[in-house]
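[Meeting: bench + compute handoff]

Bench side (C.D.) handed over the final construct sequence. Compute side (W.E.) agreed to return the predicted structure before the next meeting so the bench team could plan truncations. Sequence as handed over:
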Amino acid sequence: MQRRLSHAMHGRDGHSGKKTAFVFAGGGSFGAIQVGMMEALAAHGLQADLVVGSSVGAMNGAYYAGAPTLDGVRKLADIWRGLTRQDVFPVSLHSFLNFLWRRDFLISHEGIRKLIDDHLPYKKLEDALVPVHIVTTDIVTGETVVLSEGSAAEAIVASTAIPGAFAPVKHNGRFLADGAISSNTPIRVAIQKGAQRLIIIPTGFACAENVPPVGAVATALHALTLLISRQMTTELEYLESTIEYCVVPPLCPLVGSPYDFTRSDAHIARAIKSTEAWLADGGLEKGGIPGEMRPHSH
């Protein structure tokens, strides 16, 4: 089933009063793809009335909410191009030994926290230029916990805390972890926050690989990206008919691991090109779920 999105979506000043959300999925280093998509959308004149993000989508969405312009997205692209695995997943022999002996967590939050402190243009979520909602998971109950106020850094660190790799974040008596566990692509959250139109910005998954990635963190991230894609398509197919949506097509073939940051520049460039082509072909107006989100191997 597909739903048409009106031409009035082009810019937040002229969409007939319907509130538009950008919905950012998780996906590790494939978050670079979202940045390319965002750049093409911004160049096309699109802006969001609210932002909802989960996992790496929380980082990208939070940054966008603080600088919702083409120039802001291009600065985010520059940040992504300079990222290394060690910036986000600082694994060392010391941390590995701590993990073995303490059986606590493998990776420190400090890498992600430093990225946030260095680049996010606001400290509290309520100070963002566009309302932003960060999705996390209560690791004890499995419930979705949405953070819309308070420390942006704490919210993003919690939303990106992959279980087993990062320790959960204690917040208001709860232990919060990766938002992708309970709400991979937080579509329902966006609707609960008043969105009537959704522009869903996925990451995709490594669809050209014949074997799983090597390493515990890489494998966990790959599994999460698969879960995100599968559950997103199911959730969209059962949305209420009053909700209009489109999914920006992810890249396919997409080679590499969501733990590999060496391909960010290529991911961004490809995503800009593919999203521009999708927009030129009337993708916004056609809506629906792109074929790239369906099961495929190449």
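W.E. noted at the follow-up: The beta strands are 20-24, 50-54, 132-138, 144-147, 169-171, 174-177, 197-201, 244-247. C.D. will use this when planning the next construct.
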